[in-house]
Amino acid sequence: MNLMRYARVTAWTLLLSTAGMSADDSGKTATVAVVPKGPKVVKLAKPVEDTRGPAIRRPTLGFRVFYFPYKFFNTSGTQASTTNPVASYTYTGGSNAARLTVGINGEYRLTDHLSLGLEFRFHHVNFDETTSILSGIRDPNSSTDDRKPITINSNTEVSYFEFPLLARYYGLRHTGLLSRAYGLGGTEFRYVANIRTGNDYSFPDGSTDYNEVPVSADRNTQFGAAIGIGLRFIDDFNVKVTPEVRFIRWLSTPFQGPAYRSAANEIEAGLGFSF
Fold first, then answer.
1. By C-alpha distance, which of 3, 86, 78, 64 is closest to 246?
2. How large is the average pLDDT for residues 173-196?
3. Which end of the chain has the smaller Cβ count within 10 Å, N or C?
């Protein structure tokens, strides 16, 4: 009986020892399940609202040098006659105004592509007309006209005050030279003032005379429609250089005489500098 009891105790002791060792070993050599990592999740920051408002679009100011390749007046030679009194008239016109002038300009950028600009320039123009008057009837038996002429040489100077108002569209292309190109369109206003005329008279008897009676302008204001193209370059100091070519169609004629007329079409070439 005691032997059986001893065997039972020994068996339970062995079982408990084995279980303890197994539990101890499992604690030391337990394997850890490796969970494969998935794609890294990046948490996006919440966008911060821009409360600074639109960027300030300050105007640019500068000046522009203008060159006018064509004359401001169309001149010609023409003849006329009257019967009472009997006389023949020959008119010859000319013009030799300065081709260069300088003006000031300002421009305001409305959008990334569109701007509005106002300019002012002042320049002198002139035209002259020579009138030869032959009075009486020519001798039909003479091979030459022996009538003595009255000659009038008139020279007129005029001041033009001009105000171009132009819209420019930038960004015709994103790359290349055309990325610097722009188109323009608008109107030009001209005020005609300071009309001064000198009239020299030469008579058949050799006497002379002089007066300064000015010619009359048909109107003192003009409006014109303008279109053109240009290029815009900006250096490291933010100086903008803009060569331009414009075409202007004037809608009225302030001066018109037998041998002269204000030009209706005008071409302007300019080089602008703004800051």
1. 64
2. 91
3. N
